[in-house]
Amino acid sequence: MPEEAKGATTVPTRSDEARQGGYRSAFAVKEFRAVFLAHALSLLGVVVSEIALTVLVYALTGSPLLSALAFALGFLPYLVGGTLLSGVADRFPARRVLVVCDLVCAGCAALMALPSTPVAALLGLRCVIAAVSPVFSGTRMATLTEILGDGDLFVLGRSLLRIVSQSALLVGFGLGGVLLTFMSPRGALLITLGTFLASALLLRLGTRRRPARAGGGTLVRYSLAGTRQVLGDRRIRALLLLLWVPPMFVVAPEALAAAYADEIGVGTAWVGLLMCAMPVGTITGELYAGAALSPAARSRIVLPLAGAGLLPLLVYPFHPGLGWILLALLLAGSAGAYTLGLDRWFVDAVPEELRGRAMTVHTAGLMTIQGVGMALAGAAAEFWAVSTVVGGVGVVGTVGCVLLVLEVRRTDDARARRTEGAGAQGMAGAGARGTEGDGSRRTEGVRTEARDGAGHDMTGR
């Protein structure tokens, strides 16, 4: 935050530093370096555990259904953890929450690695990790606003964590496959145990203790109350949906990559390219937007990219060459750069005491809705050709995204009108101070209305 020096000189703000140094300015913050490295380690462990657990369950049961269920359980409990446990992110000190979440996941990985752990327990432990994940992610996102501020530096830090997530998908699955050629699945789970413990240690030693933001009542009631506040605010709800809906539709080509490769008659080697093209596009788009665009430019591209990001998928029904399909996937992935500007809007809209719960709801909703999108795309592909399904996703998704863009515009206009109204009331109150008699009582009423209006606007952002 800016600090005023004596005289006309001011100390550069974090936003000034971000504009001058780009991503390097985020890495210049010692605490962020610890958070970044902890995120990379734990995420790599999660990806390795997903592969190892899927292979382990199949080896123990011979059931493709149970093996797939071991992977799918990574999505399903997000909704439960993100709604019933979201209050943890605000009620307890952030560092304690992050370290405890890592230790819980490490304990689950240790139990999974035991030779005596049965299949039912393996699936149950997978659910525990998935339920804890949104609490961890939401707490970390809210803490970033305290480590980096809630301006442009937060946007860049958040972008770097997303880039790591996309990179982990590209590197982690390949690394996991290599590891399983040298060790057993339970041995690979020990690596996951090590990454969670290392993440906990980094967060404990590399970040400072901060007090809880708020609290009161039972945890579940407090969590649900926060969820109602988040979803009940028109502006926050519109921004959340704009963060959720495009990813819900854009996962369809990845979910159907194997089926599409079979439909067009290409080898399995192309499946990897079809699955990697979109993450590569996402990483490229994020890096360009974060390094080359100013904060104002990132705000300007939010609504156009969010509304048009799914249009490249419309090439699928025309059966172009595979090169054009890969290009379409790259473009669709690069449109994810809209989230940099939207992240800033979302943080500005959420009151500070609600940030932990809001970020947890955001994470839980994002993972859940992507799982729903995959499932719906797969169900549709049972009845229609994959190329038709992906093209249809492009059409339906674009319509939905454009409607959300219009809703975000309306909430922005409504907020601007409230701000102008509060300002006009304040000016009227100032002008009325010179009156006498019962005019002084009217002045007090106007000042009260002005304060109420400003307070309401701050809450409603």
Q: What does this 3D model show about the protein?
A:
This protein folds into three domains: 30-213, MFS general substrate transporter like domains (Growth Hormone, Chain: A, Up-down Bundle); 233-422, Up-down Bundle (Growth Hormone, Chain: A); 423-460. 80% of the residues lie in helices and 0% in strands. The chain is built from 21 helices and no strands. α16 (295-308) crosses α20 (386-431). It starts with 13 loop residues before the first helix and ends with a helix.
Under CATH, the topology of the largest domain can be stated as Growth Hormone, Chain: A
The biggest beta sheet is recorded as: none
Strand content: under 5%
Order of SSEs: HHHHHHHHHHHHHHHHHHHHH
Q: Number of folding domains?
A: 3
Number of DSSP-assigned strands: 0
Assigned CATH class of the largest domain: Mainly Alpha
Q: Give the structural class.
A: mainly alpha
What attributes characterize this protein structure?
461 residues; mainly alpha; Growth Hormone, Chain: A; globular; disordered N terminus; disordered C terminus
